[in-house]
């Protein structure tokens, strides 16, 4: 059965691709999950329209992510921690701590979008990357200070 992909689906291809799959796989899995349309002239037009809407949506998301990234570049967060000998902190500074500090400043960022190059185990100034969009990443300064 020939089908047209409505979304990117790793085993088969990208949006709009026409692929050949077994009938049962298409009827029982792909079509009910709305991954594909049967390949008809009408569905080809429908997929093209969906593709245009998806591109416009991704463009809007990218622009808003770029605006947020420029704001976040100016932000620095301070995280007070308990310190032991030789200014070593107890535990590490986590992405959740950074996300909470950003929330206090008015930026709601998911902790899974924050990336640290290395574990923060000492007092100092560090840089954290915030992945806002697949193509947009912002960097924020993290100040780790004694409590």
Outline the secondary-structure elements:
Elements: E1 2-5, E2 18-20, H1 23-30, E3 36-38, H2 41-73, E4 76-81, E5 88-93, H3 95-104, E6 114-116, E7 120-122, E8 124-133, E9 136-146
Word description of this protein:
The chain has 147 residues and is of the alpha+beta class. The protein has two domains: 2-67, Ribosomal protein L9, N-terminal domain (Ribosomal Protein L9, domain 1, 3-Layer(aba) Sandwich), CATH 3.40.5; 75-146, Ribosomal protein L9, C-terminal domain (Ribosomal Protein L9, domain 2), CATH 3.10.430.100. 35% of the residues lie in helices and 33% in strands. It contains three helices and nine strands, in the order ββαβαββαββββ. It has helices at 23-30, 41-73, 95-104, and strands spanning 2-5, 18-20, 36-38, 76-81, 88-93, 114-116, 120-122, 124-133, 136-146. The strands form three sheets. A four-stranded mixed beta sheet has the order 4-9-8-6. A three-stranded antiparallel beta sheet has the order 2-1-3, with helices on one face. The longest helix is centred in the middle third of the chain and has 33 residues, at 41-73. The mean pLDDT is 90.
What would the keywords be for this entry?
elongated; 147 residues; 3 helices; Ribosomal Protein L9, domain 2; single chain; Ribosomal Protein L9, domain 1; 4-stranded mixed sheet; alpha+beta; 9 strands; 33% strand; 3-stranded antiparallel sheet
């Amino acid at each position: 059965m020939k089908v047209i992909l409505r979304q990117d689906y790793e085993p088969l291809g990208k949006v709009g691709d026409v692929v050949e799959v077994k009938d049962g796989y298409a009827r029982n899995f792909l079509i009910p999950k709305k991954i594909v349309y049967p390949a008809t002239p009408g569905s080809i037009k429908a997929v093209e329209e969906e593709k245009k809407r998806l591109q416009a949506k991704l463009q809007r998301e990218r622009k808003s992510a770029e605006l947020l990234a420029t704001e976040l570049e100016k932000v620095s967060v301070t995280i007070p921690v308990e310190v032991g000998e030789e200014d070593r902190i107890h535990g590490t500074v986590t992405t959740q701590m950074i996300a909470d500090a950003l929330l206090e400043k008015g930026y709601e960022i998911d902790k899974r979008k924050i990336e640290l190059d290395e574990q923060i185990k000492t007092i100092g100034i560090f840089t954290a990357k915030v992945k806002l969009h697949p193509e947009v990443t912002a960097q924020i300064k993290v100040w780790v200070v004694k409590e």
